[in-house]
Amino acid sequence: AVACAPRGQRALWSLNVQVGTQSISPLLWALESGSLEAAKAILNDLLTIRADRDRYYFGADMLFERHPDIIKRLATDGPSLLPTLLDGLIWRSRITQGGRRRVVFYIKNFIINTDGSFARNLEWLFDCNNPSLVCHALVSTCTDVVWSRVAFRDFTTSRLWFLFTVVLFVLSQSILNHLHNGAIGQNPEGLRITIFFVRCFLYLFSMGTLWFRNIVGIISDYRSGAVVKRGPLKFPEYLMLWDGAARMVLAVLLTLMLSLEPVIHCLGDPTALMFAERCSAVESLYKWYSWTSCTASFVYFLLLTDLAVFSTRFSAYTLVCSRAIVDLFLWACGGLFVTFAFACCVCSLEQDNAEFHGIPKSTFSLMKVTFKMFSGESLSNLEEHSVLLGVVGMYSVVSVIFLLSVLVAQLSCAYKVAHQDMMGLARLHRIRVICDTMATCKAARWARFVDSLHLDERVEFGEGDIGLPGGIPIWEPASLHITTVDMIKRYGGSTNEEEQWPEEPIADNEDDRFDRVEKLIQKSMKRIAKGGGSAGGSKMTSSVGSMSMGSSMGASGA
User: Fold this and answer.
1) Cβ neighbours around 544 below 10 Å, total
2) Are the C-beta atoms of 225 and 273 separated by less than 8 Å?
3) Which residues have C-beta within 8 Å of that of residue 460, sequence separation ≥ 6?
4) What whole-number distance in Å separates Cα of residue 168 and Cα of residue 187?
5) How far apart are CA 168 and CA 206, in angstroms?
6) Strands, E, within 206-287: which ranges?
7) CA dist., res. 374 & res. 392, Å (int)
8) Which listed site, 57, 293, 319, 352, has its alpha carbon 20 to 30 Å from 174?
9) C-beta separation of 353 from 388 below 8 A
10) What gap in Å lies between CA 188 and CA 33, rounded to an integer?
């Protein structure tokens, strides 16, 4: 039916059918009914570039105008069709120049909505969580363009502030309070004042910014319905992401540090120096404050790993390491179970070794054996108890030889599996950063970026061959994607838009060609059966062999 459509309305016929007062999309109907082959045929027809002597015809603009959420629809109802759509938005020349090939990526509808804002197509592709899909040439080009020209600067600006707060935290907690060689808490007055004001700055701006960002993220998720159910409870997606959860933990830790701040508690002690960290009023609190500070320092540096997004190689490495942490956790659980089991066995023995007196000491001693921290003197003391020495030796075989070997095998297999998709995982991480950054991008900056792409200008297919608008031209190595057929279907004759395209010849598929070869062989075999005589039979056999060989070569050549 589409073949009968006027060439100027062929795309419209594939996307809009008026039935009474209702408008039906054949493409969506095919997706919702599960007719993926029909949907694929419609996509291929829409994304085929046709040309007569006057103009080019391309259905990409009408496709995204009719279905702005086509990426989301395909991701939901037909994920296998996403490569078909992405391939259709790329044109490659069959002619190479100097070992390079001209390529045009039609990214206008992929990154820009009909109202001119940033499209959500990258966000929908991220929700697919398919590492191989985001490595597609079109998706990679879009992410690289948006990242390098828009998102990079905004992301860098936001991370520079966080990096500045990390530096201040390290100064106040790990450097400044150790500059003076005197007694603990007896720093010079100028140093004490500096530490106090740096910590006040952190509590006011770093902690305040974290709480503001956490509250805004949680409220926006609840308002938009972006929640994850865990039994009867609903949690915002913001807290389900590791960086969102880490920011919440860091905000809580900074709040605890503020409540335990020794400088504030010492202000009420008349015997303490001004802005001193140690006094009689904080002796019982300083240990808790130091532990909280240590944990906060670790979370600060954990959030800094987000800076690996600047390089896909570094990002891929950090993501592979994060995948291996799961196997490391499983090994630790198994090791603790084995250690506790042997500790209970040791305590049930009749022995008076001080290193194995009680389950806690036995567990700690066995852990030292695992990590080769058990002293030689302590090991020689075990010779007085042969049974205890045997149990410890058995534990060494299980923990040091067996479990550590299993850990090495686990990490090797986990790295091998994750390494296959490491670049895709890195691009997924970059897409998420781009989507988060573009949500706060100013409209004026986005408009300048769109204008710099010149997407309204027509792009050349070749010298003197002015093509279609909406794309960006690049040159790629000729051997990267070998193209030997012209991707544009060109027709002669009339250029009237009301006329339909000339009928295309139906190409025989491979099964039909082999069926014809099989029938030819059967006919030849019947002739052999009717023929008589050995000589005649041998002649017929040789003729059949030559005929079947020629037919096979013709089928393979076709």
Assistant:
1) 17
2) no
3) 102, 466, 467, 473
4) 18
5) 10
6) 227-230, 233-236
7) 11
8) 319
9) yes
10) 78
Q: Of 543, 477, 466, 551, nearest to 516 (Cα)?
A: 551
Where residue 533 falls (left for φ over 0; alpha for ψ -120 to 50; beta otherwise) is left
The C-alpha atoms of residue 516 and residue 537 are separated, in whole angstroms, by: 23
Tokens of 62: 């009408």
Q: 8-22, 459-473, 504-518: lowest mean pLDDT where? A: 504-518
The token pair at 240 is 């389900």
DSSP structural state of residue 35 = -
Lowest-confidence pick of 301-315, 357-371, 506-520 = 506-520
Helix, strand, or coil here: 235?
strand
- Reported pTM: 0.71
What distance in Å separates the CA atoms of residue 298 and residue 302, rounded to the nearest whole number?
A: 6
Which segments within 40-89 are labelled E, that is strand?
Answer: 49-51, 56-57
Predicted confidence band at 174 (pLDDT cuts at 50, 70, 90)?
A: confident
Question: Quick one: DSSP state of residue 326?
Answer: H
Residue type at 265? Answer: H
* pLDDT classification of 87: cutoffs 50, 70, 90: very high
Residue 402 has which token pair?
């067996």
The span from the CA of 491 to the CA of 494, in Å, is 9
| Alpha carbons 137 and 381: distance in angstroms, whole number | 66
How far is the C-alpha of 558 from the C-alpha of 517, rounded, in Å? Answer: 13
State how far the Cα of 165 lies from the Cα of 205, in Å rounded to an integer.
Answer: 9
Residue entry with tokens 């609190």: 285
Distance CA 366, CA 223 (A): 52
